[in-house]
Structure formats: structure tokens, C-alpha cells
Design a protein that fits this description.
Elements: H1 4-15, E1 18-19, E2 29-30, E3 33-34, H2 43-51, H3 65-79, H4 90-103, H5 105-115, H6 122-127
Antiparallel strand pairs: 1-2, 2-3
Helix pairs in contact: 1-4, 4-5
Length: about 140
């Protein structure tokens, strides 16, 4: 089965660092988390407080809470809805996961399912609904 930690290490490498390029349609982004798309993510409050300090954005690397919030965000909002732990191929899971960080996890899952000739249950994907347990994860916008 695919492993979140391995996929997250690669995603973290691919997504880089903090960017606030006015010419980038993604807007202000921290390692793949767009403020425009995820304004309630708790990491933005930390980033906003560090923005006022000398050495920003390099100072983000010394904050111990941001990496934890970053990892939890991608686990809850991307890996869990795509049921990454149930995918047998690490490379397939990474492709869906990494592509999802750029286009949205629902689009990424639909694309992957289209490739293999099946159809996505969009409601269960977009809600993060676990069809095995019937439970929804508690979302606190980590």
C-alpha cells in the first residue's frame, strides 16, 4: 500500500517554499497551500505574524509549527479523500497526490479514474467522506 510520508516528502520537494508572486495565478502560497483557496488554514496566522519580522520569508523555516500544520493539511485534505493508503502503487498514489496539489484533489482523482475507465463518486471525494467507515474527518483547517 502507498505511504503518505513518502508521498509527502516528494510533494514537499516539488512544491518548494513560500511564494507571493503577483504574476502567479495561485496567489500567495506556502509549500502548495494557496491562501486564495484555503484562507482558513491556521498556518496563515503564523505566516502573517512572521511577516512583520526581519528575515521574512526565510524565517518561516525556523518555525516548528508550520511543518506540522502543512503535513496535516495535505494528509486530511488530499491523501485521505483520495484514499491514498488503499492504493497499491506508490508511484500512482504520488501522481494523483502531486497532481491534486496543483489542480485540486477532485480533478486529479477524476482524471485518474477516467484513465482507467471508471467513474468518480464526486460527492464522497469532495467531502472527504470515508466510504469504508461512513465517517467524516473533523476539519479544523489545520
Amino acid at each position: 500500500m502507498a505511504d503518505f510520508k513518502q508521498a509527502f516528502i516528494q510533494l514537499n520537494f516539488n512544491e518548494g517554499k513560500y511564494v507571493n508572486d503577483p504574476d502567479d495565478s495561485g496567489g500567495e502560497t506556502y509549500k502548495g497551500i494557496s491562501r486564495d483557496k484555503n484562507p482558513k488554514w491556521k498556518g496563515w496566522a503564523i505566516i502573517d505574524s512572521l511577516r512583520k519580522q526581519v528575515g521574512f520569508p526565510d524565517s518561516l523555516g525556523s518555525n516548528l509549527e508550520l511543518p506540522v500544520l502543512h503535513e496535516h493539511f495535505f494528509n486530511l485534505e488530499y491523501w485521505f479523500p483520495m484514499k491514498g493508503n488503499s492504493i497499491t502503487s506508490q508511484s500512482v498514489a504520488l501522481s494523483i497526490f502531486d497532481f491534486g496539489a496543483n489542480v485540486g484533489i477532485v480533478t486529479s482523482i477524476q482524471f485518474a479514474q477516467n484513465v482507467v475507465g471508471t467513474h468518480a463518486d464526486v460527492h464522497s471525494i469532495s467531502s472527504g467522506h470515508n466510504t469504508t467507515t461512513g465517517l467524516l474527518p473533523e476539519r479544523k483547517w489545520l
